[in-house]
Amino acid sequence: MTPTRRSALAAGLLYLATIVSSIPALALIQPILTQPDYVLGDGPQTRVVFGIVLDLVNVAAAIGTAVGLYPIIRRRHQTLAIGFVASRLLEGATLGIGALALVAVVTLRRDPGTASDETLVAASQSLVSLRDATFLLAPGLLASVNAALLGTALYRVRLVPRGIPLLGLIGAPLLFASTLATLVGVFEQLSPWSVVATLPIFLWELSLGLHLTLRGVTELDHEDSAPAPRPDRTTADAH
């Protein structure tokens, strides 16, 4: 297995890990997001903690995809590769802030100190609002940016079939517009419109993760094992 194939395999598995971890995490942490009295002891705790752990796994996997793909993309489009790494790091950091906000809610539930119930509920709702904001920005605005950067690079270099990056290039402006519409109050964050706008990006990340895992990249795999180029005869004669 060449270094390029190993990088592609790692990136593909990590893309799949972001999907496997993020969707169950959202379902598991719903009590925090929907029950104002959760911080007072109402609702499950173990499943919520497990959901937060999955959120943190998603953060690490998201950053790992950029680390895995950077040495492949930089050979042909260094600017796009650096931009993709930067946007992915910012997305992961934003998701991490949201996960830590939920950790704070669980901590307040376990050790409320001398705070009154009203104070605890108010603090909890503020932290949940922070998490909602990070969830809107990271999988929304920032995900559309890194899909546009990586999709452009993959489409130009043809490391994967062009239909895969096309999904990202189509989904990026849809997700960006949907996120802006949510920010200005046109519709809710989890409305049917936002779900439809997110679908192409979901398919883009799923198909890219599967292709990188099962097939790798199609153009650069041979470069790692290719023999060194022979010197030009005219140059060799001159020496």
The percent range for helix content is: over 70%
Sheet/helix structural class: mainly alpha
Using only C-alpha atoms, the radius of gyration works out to 22 Å
Q: Tally the helices.
A: 8
Give the CA-CA distance, first to last residue. 37 Å
Strand content: under 5%
- Shape descriptor: elongated
Number of strands: 0
What does this structure look like?
The radius of gyration is 22 Å and the shape is elongated. Helices cover 77% and strands 0% of the residues. The longest helix is centred in the middle third of the chain and has 41 residues, at 117-157. Residues 220-236 have low confidence and may be disordered. It has 239 residues and is mainly alpha-helical. The chain has helices at 3-28, 30-34, 46-73, 78-110, 117-157, 163-183, 192-214, 233-238. It contains eight helices and no strands. Helix 1 (3-28) packs antiparallel against helix 3 (46-73), helix 1 packs antiparallel against helix 7 and helix 4 (78-110) packs antiparallel against helix 5 (117-157).
How do you describe this structure in short?
The protein is mainly alpha-helical and 239 residues long. The protein is built from eight helices and no strands. Helix 3 (46-73) runs antiparallel to helix 4 and helix 5 packs antiparallel against helix 6.
